[in-house]
Amino acid sequence: MPFSLTALTRLLFNLPSAFILTHPGGTPIRGALQIDQSEETDQGKYECVATNSEGTRYSTPANLYVRELRDVRRIPPRFSVPPMDYEIMPGGSVNITCQAVGVPMPYVKWMLGAEDLTPEDDMPIGRNVLELTNVRQSANYTCVAMSTLGVIETVAQITVKALPNPPGTPIVMERSATSITLMWDSGNPHPVSYYIIQYRPASSTDPFKEIDAIATTRYSVGGLSPYSHYHFRVVAVNSIGGGPPSQTVEARTAEQAPSSPPRRVRGRMLSGSTAMVQWEEPEEANGQVVGYRVYYTSDSLLPVSQWEKEMVRGANFLNIRDLTPNKTYFIRVLAFTAVGDGPLSSDLHIIAKTGVPSQPTELKAEVKSETSILLSWMPPAHSGTDAITGYELIYRLGDQPEQKITFDPSSSYLLKNLKPFSTYVFQLAARSKHGLGAFTSEITIQTPQTQSIPPPQEVTCISPSSTTLLLSWAPPITDEIDVVTGYSIRYLAVEREKDSVQRISDIPSNCFRYRIEGLKKGVLYSVTVAAHTDSGQGPESLPILVRTEEDVPSAPPQGVDVVVLNATSARVSWRSPVAERQHGKIRGYQVTYARRTAGERSASPKMRELLLTDSQPQNDSEHELIVTDLWPNTEYSVAVAAFTSKGDGPRCKPIIIRTKPSLPGLPLLTVMSSDDGGAMLTWQPPPVGLSPVIGYRLSYGLADPASDSFMVQELDSVARSYTVPSLRVGVQYVFRLAARTIWGYGSSAQVTFTTSNTAETTTDAMVTVPVTIADVNMSAQEDVPLLVNVTARNINSSSAILRWSRPKNYNGMTGYRVWFAVSYSNGTDVAMESDVSETTVVLHGLRANSEYVARVCVLSKNGPGPYSLPISIKTQPEEEVFAVNFRVKAAMKSSVLLTWESRTTNSKAQSLVILYGDGERVEVDGRLGQKLVNNLKPQSVYTFQLTSKADPTGGMQHRADAMTAPNLLSKKPQLLEKSSSQSIATLQLPSVQTQANVRGFYIVVVPLKRQRGGNFQNAWSDPDEMNIDELLREINGTGRSVRLRRQVEAKPYISAHFQNLPGEFKLGDGHVYGAFLNRALVNGQEYVCFVLAILELGQNTVYSTSPFSDAVLFSDVEPQPIVDEEEGLLWVVGPVLAVIFIISIVILILLFKSKPDRKRAELEGRKCSFPSSSKAMSSQHPSDPVELRRINFPTAGNKLIKRRLSLTLMKGVLGIRMSSHPPVSVSELPAHIERMKANENLRFSQEYEVRH
């Protein structure tokens, strides 16, 4: 096609500067090529050629492109965003986007079949969005893109998801009295998610009941009524929803025996011996009633099977003939269908007497008020001449005598003036002119309480001992005064099915605490308390579950059995003790075993404990323990005992066992070829044990299984090699070597040896062991490398880990073999082997605190290689239990008192760590057994962990949870007035924010200590910092003797106990408040007090305290001694220092007055001629030979002589004569005097004699 070209196309060619044409005058020649009316054929490469006499030169080529006038490329249309296929719900909406590009840009339109969906005059360019709404059918929509360069189209498929079709009509496959089994066809070509069965009784217009999520086309609908018609239909459900239901099918359930007796059974006498009985059809016949059976008798004690009976078909009455006149007959009726009999009706009483009415029927009692009951009944059948003239009602209250009431004929009667909250029994009979008819059966009804008294409040229960519970409560809240006449307690052991409910009655109305005794130990009880009024017992309180304190088990474990495993171990198995005698939760078991010689114990017993976890069962559970540190061929007695948190129970009868003898292990045997054609055997002895090796036995012969001729050679214990000469070449031999002790031969190391180069080593049990075989030409030891860099490390008390390096440049390896045994044992430890494939192995089942030796070798296709050098491993010692019974004894607002029982037997300090809160910790000496943790938050839950400081992270830990008390008493007691004459202080007690769950309030008095200068000081800034252990013992009754005895030193004490905290309290009035004496206050002693509240928060008992009150001090009549500890020590040390000071002064005076002559001084020193009272000195000098010798023969060092002389002088000054005692230096004198003062100066009287 023609191109639209530019009017002028010009090409200019520039020659290179190195070659420029010039005119003769030197002017360069320039040229140009101009193409007019260029066409497409002009497009190409152009060159300028310059030629002169010197030559020809070509310019650089230039390309000529003939382009379109608009400079735009022409591109046919294509879809850049093709439309997508969609699946929508019926009636849904969707937007379909179609986008096309090209040069020029195409027009885009939508079509449905041959119908244009986009108007021709409104056709968009490049992009068209088709909006579809309320789509009901699936269809294919076509997107068309067109331009001058072409037309393209693509299809978008819109699929409308359809609801499933209705399933086929259900078919009844099976039917029973209460179920119908249906089957149906799916009726849908596409998958169905599930089906829904809809059903209802045929006579009902209620909505259908549905059973959904049915995955199959067969289902049995249960829970239907017998012999009833039902309508059923099925609905299919897919991801869209449920489709239309199927056609409805009607089905009837099968018959069943009647589930109710005949109604309105009544009777009357037709004559003196004939009675007519009538009834109506049962309310729930469950089918077609075929007939009735009537049972009657005059002896109601006979079983119904022995009564007379009559069968009735097609009628609802029966005439019973030949009755004995004037006897009372008991009649019962049942209906039966083709399936079976229904239940019997209640007894109908008829007196065989003409004219006497039968019993009224359908007697009912209805409570009208707390003192009245309305009785209603159906009158008995009667004729006109036997008309009922009245009724007689018999009723009684519980076990009280019966009362009778007669009244005129009626069908109801209102009985008044009854006792509220009481149980009444009623019987009714009709009367005619011929006499009184039969009475109905007894009916029982209870009248309501006149005014429902609430249950007792603030009920709490604790276990002060293993056989008692202490129950306390507050009286019920009621508006009436003295409404409560007493209380009763009901308790039951909830974990014992055989135990019955126990009741305690006749508890006085002013008693609010009761101790239940004679309970079982460690058993969970449910306890309730109820208040009683004149109207009877009120409702019980909510049950409180409390467990009695644990005690040691009173029975040993059952079925104890001991099985000897080998020379050093035995398996002990047993069952838990009898549940009734466990007395708490079994925490573990203790196995005690001791060596015996000649029937007597020859060594101290050893103990092993098996601790149980909380998840392990307690009753009739089986346990076992492996004891591994026994001696071989030794008699042992083994006994097992269970223990709780309170201690160990009795041990079972000792079981006598004897361990197996100790046999030696495997020698490490090596076989090599000898120079003379024989075999050189070398070996290493087995691991050293308790029984030494006393010899070896070597046997060898041909490896042929048919050959039984072996040579046997006995060797001594020192032999380590043996040569077998002149073996046949190329023949396979078997060598066996066994070690011998006094108990016999051990296992044999077996070597299969060929005189060429092959050898295998096996035990008697055909277990391969390492052996090294050398040959003249080839050696296995040279082929298989020796492992190096073998390391070992213990993991815990029963396991260790071995590691080694993989051999380099060796490809024939198939694995590794690990050999390990106890380095030093009692002679019966068996060496163990294990084949592994990795360079790391973990050894399990090791003994604690024992040393093991291990070796590793390489396994190849030719057999095992040489073992590595032995390496020693020592397991960690067993972790000791450092404490038990870790618990929270008391929880206050900001502190918690923790207690435990130390298991440390030595007297050294046991450093324990208590972890709690957000990483807080406190260290404590474990021997103290308790620790008060302070600075906690009120009413917060804390978890305390007790662990040993030696291993605070990975060791054993004990855990206890506690909730701190709420801040119930925020204000302190206020001092209102003081009576100095009576030493009584009146306090205003703080108000309680709430008394819910408060068990009681206690007034605690704290005497303060007098400090230096006569001032008093409180050692605690807050009551929560006090250790209230002794106060708790007083509260629980265990510290009664402490309260009654005279207090030697001032200690905090409880002065009063209140159920409800009064507004004011007189401190020191000498009265008793709740079994606590309010002691008189001492003049000159300063006191503070606070209020202690005990709360029950669930299963936790917490203690909330008020702040300290202001100090109370009365005038001091007599000066009180200072009780400061430092001042008390000064009174002891002061006189001693004064005596020493006086002695020093005397010595200095004597030395100063002595002459300067040294000999005379020494002579006077020997004679002890001090210028003091000669009578005093002469009387003490000869009586002490030790001092006499030291004075006559002084040692070097004048300082020591002076100290000893000062001691002698002090004896003279104090008037004491030494009987037999070495000298004491002055520096040790104070400590020596303190030791002498111990045990009421007993040692002082033994060491010295006082001169009168």
Kindly describe this structure:
Keywords: Disulfide bond, Glycoprotein, Hydrolase, Immunoglobulin domain, Membrane, Protein phosphatase, Receptor, Repeat, Signal, Transmembrane, Transmembrane helix. Its main location: membrane. Residues 1-22 form the signal peptide. The chain crosses the membrane at residues 1129-1152. It comes from Danionella cerebrum. The chain is mainly beta. Among the domains are: 75-160, Immunoglobulins (Immunoglobulin-like), CATH 2.60.40; 171-252, Immunoglobulins (Immunoglobulin-like); 262-352, Immunoglobulins (Immunoglobulin-like), CATH 2.60.40.10; 361-446, Immunoglobulins (Immunoglobulin-like, Sandwich); 457-547, Sandwich (Immunoglobulin-like); 558-658, Sandwich (Immunoglobulin-like), CATH 2.60.40.10; 668-755, Immunoglobulin-like (Sandwich); 968-1030 and 1050-1116, Immunoglobulins (Immunoglobulin-like), CATH 2.60.40.10. The chain contains nine helices and 91 strands. The strands form 26 sheets. Strands 47, 48, 49, 51, 52 and 53 form a six-stranded antiparallel β-sheet that branches. The chain has a five-stranded mixed β-sheet with strand order 8-14-13-10-11, with no helix packed on it. α4 (1125-1153) packs across α8. It is extended and about 165 Å long. It starts with 7 loop residues before the first strand and ends with a strand. 26% of the residues are buried. Residues 1-25, 757-782, 1039-1048, 1117-1127 and 1157-1220 have low confidence and may be disordered.
